[in-house]
Amino acid sequence: MRRTEPRAARESAALPSQRQLKVGEQLRHLLAAAFLRGETHDPLLDGVSLTVSEVRMSRDLRHAVVYVSELGHEALRPEVGAALGRAAGRLGGRAAREMNLKYAPRLRFEPDDRFGEAERVERLLDEGLGPDRRGGPSSADEGEEG
Fold first, then answer.
1. Burial (Cβ within 10 Å: 0-12, 13-18, ≥19) of residue 96
2. What's this model's pTM, rounded to 2 decimal places?
3. Which CATH number describes the domain made up of 16-132?
4. What secondary structure letter does DSSP report for 84?
5. 96, 105 Cβ separation under 8 angstroms
6. Tell me, what DSSP letter sits at residue 137?
7. Residue 98 CB neighbour total at 10 angstroms
């Protein structure tokens, strides 16, 4: 049987390997610690509380997408995103040294809007169903219990 999908499409749909997951999690911890200690060498990032929620590594471990959110703000402010972009090379080099990687991963910071999206869905559910109907037993269940 011949595959009709291009190789790149098959690989992008594949689940990450154990190595990708392990390196991604190590990198997440390293970046979170660097942000917490203010080791970004950018005055704009000093005093900014950043959360690193996920790091997705490429198969060759040369690229990483880092999902960050800024505490106290709905979305990542543009100036904070720009500062992260400027610090990416330095942080990637540090990661390669501390994690003994063959190549310094090229970091791309992306805003993590999952929390905002969850709040939006919660709000829509509250508006659509009303707070008194959410999560409780249905009216048919209440009649049977009595």
1. middle
2. 0.71
3. 3.30.300.20
4. H
5. yes
6. P
7. 13
